[in-house]
Amino acid sequence: MTPVTNPTNEAEELYYRALVRTRVIVELTLGVVKNRFRCIHRFGGELQYTPLRSAKIVSACLLLHNRCVSRSIPDPNNHLPEEDMPIEAHVVGAGDRGGTDRQTRDEIIPEFYGRKGV
Fold first, then answer.
1. Distance CA 34, CA 1 (A)
2. N or C: which end of the chain has fewer CB within 10 A?
């Protein structure tokens, strides 16, 4: 999803806040998984496979991570490297390629964040 650079109404502001909160959670989760499985971390290794095979490897890492969490197996690398810490500012202007991205966003905002019955 693309951010609204300068929200002009309540629906856009609610959307932006939700996007920031969601992105922070996703980035924290990915940082933890990349820290546990160094093969998918940019400093620990690179997946030099086809996109399909890389997706399978990442899926396996996520599955194993969830299993570790459910069984209370601690992460041996129990810290997030500073470069993986999410920062709200990453969202501003990130990924807005215009066109269909912006059109989809503009359809979602009033549908899910606009006031109903007003």
1. 22
2. C
* Residue pLDDT, tens place only, 56-99: 998 999 999 999 999 999 887 765 454 544 444 444 444 545 56
Cβ atoms 59, 40 nearer than 8 A: no
Q: What is the DSSP string of 46-91?
A: ---S-HHHHHHHHHHHHHHHHHHHHTTPPPSS-S--GGGS--GGGG
> Which SS3 state, helix, strand or coil, does residue 38 take?
helix
pLDDT more than 70, % of the chain: 75
Q: What is the mean pLDDT of residues 41-67?
A: 85
Whole-prediction pTM = 0.60
The whole-angstrom separation of Cα 88 and Cα 14 is 15
Which token pair is 2? Answer: 């693309």
The end-to-end CA distance of the chain, in Å, is 26
How many helical (H) and strand (E) elements, i.e. helices and strands, does the chain have?
3, 0
